[in-house]
Amino acid sequence: MRHRLGYRKLNKTTSHRKAMFANMAASLIEHEQIVTTLPKAKEMAPLMDKLVTLAKKGDLTARRQALAKVRNEDAVRKLFDVMGERYKDRNGGYTRVLKAGYRHGDNAPVAVLELVDRDESAKGAADRARHEAEMES
Predict the structure, then answer these.
(1) What does the pLDDT read at residue 116?
(2) How far is CA 129 from CA 78, 82, 92, 122, in A?
């Protein structure tokens, strides 16, 4: 029986899965929208909701717990400073999973994982700034 086995292994070891979700969380916090496979997006959504809940608490313990999951100081700083304030009046449901068809190479189902009420200008902002700096010099 598979009672209470509530997560997908995604054909990865535990350490690989934790590292992958940490990187995905950091990317989602930075860009506020990512494209990934549907099973990964469905596994990532509750994890991201828990991180936003920690950001709403805002204390040092919550910050350290988030840093243990995400492992990216800049992402945790944005999570607590920007998103904690943005979602302070919302009770859950901080992420949205949108199906986006199938990937060309292997026909895997693809989904867009995004934050609700996201900042439209956040996606690719660092890349745009880097590109403009290169063009000026």
Answers:
(1) 95
(2) 17, 19, 32, 11
Fill in the amino acid letter for 17.
R
Torsions phi, psi for 35 (to 5 deg): -110, 125
Question: Which tokens is 127 given?
Answer: 């890349």
Helix, strand, or coil (residue 107): coil
Exposure letters 76-105 (e unless 16+ CB within 10 A, then b) = bebbbeebbebbeeeeeebbbeeeeeeeee
Question: In this predicted model, what pLDDT tens digit does every residue of 33-82 receive, in sequence order?
Answer: 999 999 999 999 999 999 999 999 999 999 999 999 999 999 999 999 99
